[in-house]
Amino acid sequence: MSDELEMMRAEWRVINDELGIRNYELRIMSYPLSIISSLSLGVVKRRRNFLSFLSCKRKLKLGIAWGFGLVAFNLHIPAAKALDPVQLEQFRQTGSCANCDLSGASLIDARLSNTDLRGANLAAADLTRADLRNANLTGANLAGTSLVYASLAGANLTRANLQVSNLTRANLTNAILTGASLYRSRLMGASLASADLRGALFWEADLTSANLIGANLRGADLRGALVENTIGLEVRGSGAILPNGAFQP
Question: Which residues pair with 171 in a beta bridge?
Fold first, then answer.
């Protein structure tokens, strides 16, 4: 059995190399692999022939690729490196940490208004109730980040990666999200009033009960987004793509 398990591990390494997913270490992206791994172990436990298992390699590849959604949705989620404690301490003392690695950091209730976080990696960080008013988060990686009840009023999130992030009840009033990616982000009850959302991607985002009064949605992509009870969703003449995929001239 140990030889078979070693062969299985070697086979998984080959599959990972072929798919180029070795560097995708975000917790939010490990879930599909955990499911597939469990299924694989189940096959071994049922004492099926190991060679039969290897014959399913192609199906496993397709399953992994589907789980990550990289091909279907043309997404790019940068790899989350280990949190750098030195950079975290620098950030806490100076309020400036452009291009630094704060992935997975616990910054609950942190006071970060007017901070410089351009290009910073905050993937999977916990910024629940954080004060990020007028912060510069241009090009920052906030994939999988918790921003529940966070205040981002006036923040600059131009081209920021907010995929699969939780922005429930967050305040993004007057925030700049030009070209930002909010694929499958949760924005229930969030305020995006007067926000600059030009060219932002909201594929399958949950905007239930969100406030979009006065928001600029020119060129935004709302395909598959949930907009039940959304307030102020005005797309006429914006050139936006509606949740049903229709183009709004």
Answer: 151, 191
